[in-house]
Specification:
By secondary structure, this protein is an alpha/beta fold. It has helices at residues 4-11, 22-37, 53-60, 71-79, 96-104, 115-127, 166-175, 195-214, 243-253, 268-271, 304-308, 317-329, and strands at residues 17-20, 42-46, 65-68, 87-89, 109-112, 132-139, 161-162, 179-185, 221-223, 261-266, 275-286, 291-295, 314-316, 342-347, 356-363, 371-374, 395-398. It is elongated, with a radius of gyration of 23 Å. It binds pyridoxal-5'-phosphate (PLP).
Length: 400
């Protein structure tokens, strides 16, 4: 991902910053579009994963829809040129202001997460003389086999409507004249790479759509949510999410009836590999038990390790590139990275003990001023940055 020109450019740029490789982004989006269009599936980009303008513009140019989780995301999606007929709005706590803004924008569908929310959207739509398209977000009680911090589809989670409430949902829908029932929506978690999870989800969706049809509703939309995972361990050798297998599972196990549309809401899988957080070593602290690399980036720039115990590959670009140049001069045709001989705890400068990217990271001997890349940071990275400790806003640099 980083050739010597790129590293040279990093050397002349103030750190920390997010580096976006637009080729990686486009290759990923190509793969996603090709794999989904084979089956006529509709993909909405989950904006919360990354709302960097250049990234969102690139995604919009592919004709994907947008999956939003706040009123501001709805507005931003429309400002970025997403077709309002392809904008969906999810979230367990939509405020009246946000619902009104989405009604004014004539979005395609609200993914509704409680019976009370159904009643409120109905009231607010009626007041505007509008009819709101809605899908019922059902909590399918499917275990995503992912980290429990990012599981959303179990009975114990706050998201969605539980199946034992469906009779009340049906009754409410019949009463609400300003709602148009479009279909059913699911989202079981994030960073899911086990296709068996999606197969289980398909079975639940099939049961649920039968339930609605049996109760006199036409289910036009089957929205399976998002959650497809990426390879945080091998960003270079396995840089594109397995869209092929993912969409194939749904085409095989979902019972799609004539006239139905299948929708997806992918965030992470579309953007994660396109960015790295680039930082510099400020200090090297050698202790008796531990060695620390203290970076000029911390949880204020990338919070995932601290928030979800997430893994990111960490590389010392300066030592790797020095090694490559040396090996090239020695005329070695096959170059592997230098031996990783030291274990460092790679930490940030923030006054919190949790401000650690990873413990016991194998790295070559590292020095003050070395460039460190924290890989696969394109999803839930820059968007979660904060100015805690009154830090400067993190900058973005693009490959073009
Ligand atoms: C966050 C979210 C997504 C996207 O999840 P990824 O794991 O990034 O694919 C999709 N749908 C809903 C409702 C979400 O909240």
């Amino acid at each position: 991902m980083f050739n010597n020109n790129t590293i040279q450019r990093f050397n002349n740029t103030e750190t920390p910053f997010y580096y976006y490789d637009m080729d990686v982004l486009r290759n990923t989006l190509d793969a996603c579009r090709d794999a989904s269009s084979k089956y006529g599936f509709h993909v909405h980009y989950a904006m919360k994963a990354n709302f960097n303008t250049k990234v969102v513009d690139a995604i919009q140019s592919y004709g994907f829809g947008a999956d939003c989780v706040s009123g501001n995301e709805v507005r931003s999606a429309i400002e970025h040129g997403f077709d309002k007929g392809k904008v969906v709005f999810a979230g367990v706590g939509k405020s009246d202001k946000e619902i009104n803004a989405a009604l004014d924008a004539d979005i395609f569908c609200f993914n509704v997460e409680s019976i009370q929310e159904l009643e409120i959207i109905n009231e607010l739509a009626a007041a505007k003389g509008k009819v709101a398209g809605i899908a019922i977000r059902i909590n399918p009680n499917v275990d995503a086999h992912t980290h429990h911090f990012i599981t959303t589809g179990l009975d114990e989670n706050k998201f969605g409507i539980n199946t034992w409430q469906l009779n009340d949902v049906a009754e409410t829908l019949r009463k609400c004249a300003s709602l148009k029932f479009l279909g059913i929506h699911f989202h079981v978690g994030s960073q899911i790479t086990d296709m068996e999870v999606y197969r289980n989800l398909c079975n639940r969706i099939n049961e649920m759509q039968d339930w609605f049809e049996d109760h006199g509703f036409t289910v036009k939309i089957l929205n399976t949510g998002g959650g497809l995972g990426v390879d945080y361990y091998n960003p270079d050798t396995n840089g594109i999410a397995d869209f092929e297998s993912y969409f194939k599972v749904f085409s095989k196990f979902l019972n799609v009836k004539p006239g139905q549309e299948v929708h997806f809401e992918l965030g992470r899988a579309m953007v994660a590999q396109s960015a790295s957080l680039i930082s510099r070593v400020l200090y090297v602290k050698n202790g008796q038990k531990k060695n620390f690399l203290i970076l000029d980036a911390g949880m204020t720039e990338l919070m995932r390790p601290m928030l979800y115990q997430a893994y990111h590959a960490i590389e010392n670009l300066s030592q790797n590139s020095k090694f490559k140049i040396q090996k090239l001069e020695e005329n070695q045709s096959e170059i592997v990275n230098p031996k990783s001989e030291i274990k460092y705890d790679v930490v940030g400068p923030i006054c919190e003990s949790t401000d650690c990217f990873r413990k016991d990271v194998d790295l070559p001997q590292s020095y003050r001023g070395d460039l460190i890349a924290i890989r696969t940071a394109g999803a839930y990275g820059e968007v979660m940055a904060s100015n805690y400790n009154l830090r400067d806003a993190v900058q973005s640099v693009y490959s073009e």
